[in-house]
Amino acid sequence: MKAKILQKPPASPLRAEILEQPAAVARLLDAEGARAPRILRALGRKARFVMIAARGTSDNAARYAQYAFALRAGLPVALASPSIVTLYKTTVRARGSLFIGISQSGMSPDIVESLASAKRAGARTLAIVNNTNSPLARAADEVLPLHAGVERSIAATKTYTAELAAVALAAESLRIADSPRAGRGLAPELYRTPETIQKALRCEAAAETGAGILRKGGRAVVLARGVHLCTSHEISLKLKELARVLAEPYSSADFEHGPIALAGLGLPVIVLCPPGTPAAAELRALSDRLAAKGCPVFEIGTRGGVKLPRAPEWLAPLSTIVAGQWLALHAALLRGLDPDRPAGITKITETL
Amino acid sequence: MKAKILQKPPASPLRAEILEQPAAVARLLDAEGARAPRILRALGRKARFVMIAARGTSDNAARYAQYAFALRAGLPVALASPSIVTLYKTTVRARGSLFIGISQSGMSPDIVESLASAKRAGARTLAIVNNTNSPLARAADEVLPLHAGVERSIAATKTYTAELAAVALAAESLRIADSPRAGRGLAPELYRTPETIQKALRCEAAAETGAGILRKGGRAVVLARGVHLCTSHEISLKLKELARVLAEPYSSADFEHGPIALAGLGLPVIVLCPPGTPAAAELRALSDRLAAKGCPVFEIGTRGGVKLPRAPEWLAPLSTIVAGQWLALHAALLRGLDPDRPAGITKITETL
Question: Which chain B residue lies closest to A109 (C-alpha atoms)?
Answer without folding.
Answer: B253
